Amino acid sequence: MVEDHGADELLNEIEALGAKLTTARAAIATRIIGQETVVDLSLAAMLAGGHALLMGLPGLGKTRLVETLATVMGLTGNRIQFTPDLMPSDILGSEVLETASDGSRAFRYIEGPIFAQLLMADEINRASPRTQSALLQAMQEREVTVAGQTRALPAPFHVLATQNPIEQEGTYPLPEAQLDRFLVKIDVEYPDRATERAIVLATTGGAEAQATGVFDSASLIAAQTIVRRMPVGDKVVDLILDLVRACRPDNPDAPETVRSHVAWGPGPRAAQALMLLVRAQALLDGRLAPDVSDVARLARPVLAHRMALSFAARAEGIVLEDVIDEVAARTTRIEQAA
């Protein structure tokens, strides 16, 4: 086990945070009906201090979810609608030349909407690659450089981006380097009939429910610290490493399905993401430590955007998520048998 001093104190902090997260989920549920997995993954990404990419067709509540999360988590939020004509300065801000009353001139920096604790990048794949890349430094280093000067972003800083499927007309695929900076990719699916009925009734009446704040920026940062202190068993750590390494086609120990179908696999950042997310998921489930089932459960959302099928595999109709599921099941069996 990963040891930590003050075990009793940490136990109390984990239990208190778990209760607070239960309240937060209930507050989110007043505006987001169904989609429990989507909500949990979004919360887990924030507890892990990372960014999330929400993937789904228009009209499935992605924007509403991000707005609700900003309220419940007590964060200042900004929204950017990504369009083909959006420029990097529209995100980062720019310097303008101002003339004072005495006739003197000086440049003044005007902050862009990226200076927020929760940035919603709406339909991120509708902007050009040049504009998409404006987020790279911010997502990794929590700072931006404009006109040669580096400026820190507010803490905490999270990007929750929404994306339409690449097959939709007028979209640009995100570069691999940027995809890797998203801790998790969350697929937003159509609701079932009962959930859709509840949504229709709840959102077409006289007044809609309003979410209430549960966290603030300080308590979220404290929660992120607790997540990183949460104990993780050696078996879970080994399973994370075995799973990530098994998804690399150049690994001679990788299963045949990976070596024959995968073009490139996940790097060490995937293992880091899994390590943080299994802890956050355990917290959300009211448990004091993650177990091996959390690794298999989170394999898809952590690995799917960090891997790519070969052209031949795509031509054969191979589905990447099925490959991940197969590798996760195989790795779990081997680890449990060890």
UniProtKB/TrEMBL annotation:
<dbReference type="Pfam" id="PF17863">
    <property type="entry name" value="AAA_lid_2"/>
</dbReference>
<protein>
    <submittedName>
        <fullName>ATP-dependent protease Lon</fullName>
    </submittedName>
</protein>
<keyword id="KW-0378">Hydrolase</keyword>
<dbReference type="InterPro" id="IPR041628">
    <property type="entry name" value="ChlI/MoxR_AAA_lid"/>
</dbReference>
<dbReference type="InterPro" id="IPR011703">
    <property type="entry name" value="ATPase_AAA-3"/>
</dbReference>
<keyword id="KW-0067">ATP-binding</keyword>
<dbReference type="GO" id="GO:0016887">
    <property type="term" value="F:ATP hydrolysis activity"/>
</dbReference>
<dbReference type="GO" id="GO:0005524">
    <property type="term" value="F:ATP binding"/>
</dbReference>
<dbReference type="InterPro" id="IPR050764">
    <property type="entry name" value="CbbQ/NirQ/NorQ/GpvN"/>
</dbReference>
<dbReference type="InterPro" id="IPR027417">
    <property type="entry name" value="P-loop_NTPase"/>
</dbReference>
<feature type="domain" description="AAA+ ATPase">
    <location>
        <begin position="48"/>
        <end position="192"/>
    </location>
</feature>
<comment type="similarity">
    <text>Belongs to the MoxR family.</text>
</comment>
<dbReference type="GO" id="GO:0008233">
    <property type="term" value="F:peptidase activity"/>
</dbReference>
<dbReference type="Pfam" id="PF07726">
    <property type="entry name" value="AAA_3"/>
</dbReference>
<keyword id="KW-0645">Protease</keyword>
<dbReference type="GO" id="GO:0006508">
    <property type="term" value="P:proteolysis"/>
</dbReference>
<keyword id="KW-0547">Nucleotide-binding</keyword>
<dbReference type="InterPro" id="IPR003593">
    <property type="entry name" value="AAA+_ATPase"/>
</dbReference>
